[in-house]
Specification:
The chain is α/β, with parallel strands linked by helices. The chain has helices spanning 31-42, 57-67, 88-99, 116-128, 142-150, 171-180, 201-210, 214-224, 236-241, 252-259, and strands at residues 8-10, 16-18, 22-23, 47-49, 75-80, 104-109, 132-138, 159-163, 183-187, 228-229. It contains ten helices and ten strands. The chain binds NADP nicotinamide-adenine-dinucleotide phosphate. Residues 23-25, 49, 110, 138-139, 161, 187-193, 198, 213, 215, 230-235, 238, 241-242 line the site of NADP nicotinamide-adenine-dinucleotide phosphate. The site of NADP nicotinamide-adenine-dinucleotide phosphate (NAP) has 27 residues, from helix 9.
Length: 289
């Protein structure tokens, strides 16, 4: 069946997750995030990706209410930050309060911080209680995922959210996740803020050929691989552009041309070294009004 803005992937617990969502990392708390969320929902997006550390969950909740789209039609993701790894219940309950909802659709461990196996076991309990419909992880490598099993996880994570775009295709991890029935979700699907990917001449020539923008071309590449994408923008025109991915289809050959760009070039921090990252380099938590 042809893909559309309504397309979903089925998670390993039977829940449907949209293939496209709006990311809100670095969207300012307040009107900037609130109106980006409202605009995206008005354009037909049905998924929003936030996190405790983005400090904009209240604004996300307000944008959702403004949109008048029923809460149950929206897939909301948030993430557990390291401060709450020893108390995931508190982390989730406080996120729910800020978002103004009584469950999230997906709750992720933001990074494999120290204690991630125990924190994951607690996410399983929160899921059993219905506080989150699906659970998963972010920035996990294969060995982190294997570690969960070795430490008694009774469920496979539904989702692993990692940096993924043509310069960092994550082929090995994607193959592993497919075999394990874990959905790979691409963060920084446009290459992230200040990226050069969108001006890459190989992307430019193909986007000219398909008469689409570079952003549309590379988002489409990921969704054709079955990878969920959550591009961030605060600009209505780009929010719309990033959702118009369904009037064209990349041929297998052109999928390969884009895949060949891969250089395993990750911009994010190495998750194996995340516990050594100096505390001063993490974003500071600023409470929203
Ligand atoms: N789990 C994690 O550790 C993690 C880490 C990073 C991100 N994420 C999630 O993934 C989401 C997306 O990743 P990201 O924000 O890092 O990067 P991204 O979505 O790849 O790129 C966002 C950047 O591209 C610009 N942009 C958006 N649409 C564009 C278009 N059509 N043409 C040209 N430029 C465009 C945005 O600027 P404007 O806003 O000015 O349009 C922004 O500077 C985040 O917002 C967050 O929800 C998760």
């Amino acid at each position: 069946m042809a893909l559309s803005i309504k397309s979903v992937v089925e998670l390993n617990n039977g829940l449907n997750m949209p293939l496209l969502g709006l990311g809100v990392f670095r969207s300012q708390a307040g009107e900037e995030t609130r109106s980006a969320v409202r605009t995206a929902l008005e354009y037909g997006y049905r998924m929003i990706d936030t996190a405790r550390i983005y400090c904009n969950e209240k604004s996300v909740g307000r944008g959702i209410k403004d949109s008048l789209v029923p809460r149950e039609d929206i897939f909301i993701t948030t993430k557990l930050w390291k401060d709450d790894f020893e108390n995931p219940r508190r982390g989730l309950e406080q996120s729910l309060e800020r978002l103004g909802v009584d469950y999230v659709d997906l709750y992720l461990l933001h990074w494999p911080f120290k204690g991630y196996c125990q924190a994951y076991l607690e996410l399983e309990q929160l899921q059993r209680e219905g506080l989150c419909k699906a659970i998963g992880v972010s920035n996990f490598k294969i060995h982190h995922l294997e570690d969960l099993k070795a430490h008694g996880a009774s469920t496979i994570p539904q989702v692993n959210q990692v940096e993924c775009h043509p310069l960092n295709a994550e082929n090995e991890l994607l193959n592993y996740c497919r075999k394990q029935n874990i959905i790979l979700e691409a963060y920084s699907p446009l290459g992230g803020e200040g990226n050069t990917l969108l001006s890459d001449p190989r992307i430019a020539s193909l986007s000219d050929y398909y008469k689409v923008s570079p952003a549309q071309l590379i988002l489409r590449w990921n969704i054709q691989r079955g990878v969920v994408v959550i591009p961030k923008s605060i600009r209505p025109q780009r929010i719309l552009e990033n959702s118009q991915l369904y009037s064209f289809e990349l041929t297998m050959d052109d999928m390969d041309v884009i895949s060949d760009i891969n250089a395993n070039l990750r911009r994010a921090y190495d998750s194996d070294k995340i516990d050594q990252r100096p505390a001063s380099t993490f974003p500071k938590i600023i409470e929203e009004e």
